[in-house]
Amino acid sequence: MQRGIIKVVTATIAVAAVVGLAACAPTASTGTSSTSAGAATADPVKQYANAQEVIDSYPTTDYCGTKDLSLAFPAGIVNAWMKQSYYMIQQEAAKCPNIKNLQIVDAGVDQQKAVSDVNSLVAQGVNGIVTLPIFGAAQVPSFKAAMKAGVPVVTFVSDSGGVVGTDVAAQVDQDIPALGQAWADYLGKNLKTGSVVFLGNAPGQPSSQAAFDAFKTALAAYPGLTLVEPEFVPTNNSAVTKKQQMTAMLAKHGRIDAVVSDNGAIDSSVIDAYQEAGMALPYIANDNTTNGLNCVWQKTNFPLFSLDGSNVAGVVGFRHLLAAVNNIPTTEPTVVKQFISADTLGTVPAKCDPSVSPDADWSTGLTADQFKQILG
């Protein structure tokens, strides 16, 4: 397996029919569910201070197994966030000498290709798949077919709605209710009154819908804060689209006091929209703030609050995949609590290094040299 190198496969592999396979994929043995590997009771969900604590909490080497493995990370979009998540998973895979291949496949924000990529990987003979399903329920049939063919699928961050044990081997979630509550509490404490807009990712993306619903529920405790739109505003995981949507929101509603976003990696676009509109900068509450937004903050000093832990959820998902592939019981929880990565009104400044890509997410625990290798 190539270690520390991002190699993206974009060509569609010819799909062979997967028929006559009686084997079914094992599931990661957690909670009270039972598999051929036996039952395991999940440990209580813990609050970790940073990504490294999450990585160190359960040794990946406990789940390597002994048989040679070929694994895959099909992605709906291979953006900077996915590259960093893949790199972190690669680092864990490198701890298992029996993992001979871990490829990433880019669907290019094409739902049909995302589905066919999973089918193709199964036909190609991979032993397991870990993925963030940005297209939600539309991807479940391909996951279910993979599981039926004996190839475990573990999803993380974005919940496809697939049934654990049948459609997927495990689903690793962030603590979305806590995330929404933290955003609402931050604005309720600091902004107190004003208008708010929620910028999500792809239309209907489960992770964005869940985050918006959690925030909207928590916001009800703060009647002075008002959402200007009844649903999240989709931005297609694109900085260009995010700026366009923010510009449109400002034209429609006038200045908006606060922006909540579940993709802080491209929130510099929000600042660009405000500056071009000649408006005072807003409060920003997000997750996954990155070097670019942090450096903008150092120059403009707008209130920034960010939580993180989404990239490292991929590491947890990968460990659950290994547990499922190798029929090894695991007690690792399938929920990752976010940790504060920036609170500029509090005691956590936003880290900026102009020599590093604006897409670098410092909460991953990766170094400047590693970011330069991953992102250029």
CATH class of the largest domain, please? Answer: Alpha Beta
CATH topology of the largest domain: Rossmann fold
Helical content class = 25-40%
Assigned CATH superfamily of the largest domain: Response regulator
CATH level-two architecture of the largest domain: 3-Layer(aba) Sandwich
Radius of gyration: 20 Å
Structural class: alpha/beta
Q: Report, as a whole number of angstroms, the end-to-end distance.
A: 22 Å
State the low-pLDDT regions, or none.
Answer: 1-23, 31-39
* SSE ordering: EEEHEHEHEHEEHEHEHEHEHEHEEH
Number of domains: 2
Please tell me about this protein's structure.
The chain is an alpha/beta fold and 376 residues long. The chain folds into two domains: 8-174 and 311-338, 3-Layer(aba) Sandwich (Rossmann fold); 176-307 and 343-375, Rossmann fold. 35% of the residues lie in helices and 17% in strands. The chain contains eleven helices and 15 strands. It has helices at residues 51-57, 80-93, 111-124, 140-148, 176-190, 206-219, 239-253, 268-276, 291-300, 310-325, 368-375; strands spanning 8-9, 34-35, 38-39, 69-75, 99-106, 128-131, 153-156, 170-174, 194-199, 225-227, 258-261, 283-287, 304-308, 335-336, 339-343. It has a seven-stranded parallel β-sheet, with helices on both faces. α3 (111-124) runs parallel beside α4 (140-148). The longest helix is centred in the C-terminal third of the chain and has 16 residues, at 310-325. 52% of the residues are buried. Mean pLDDT is 90; it is low at 1-23 and 31-39.
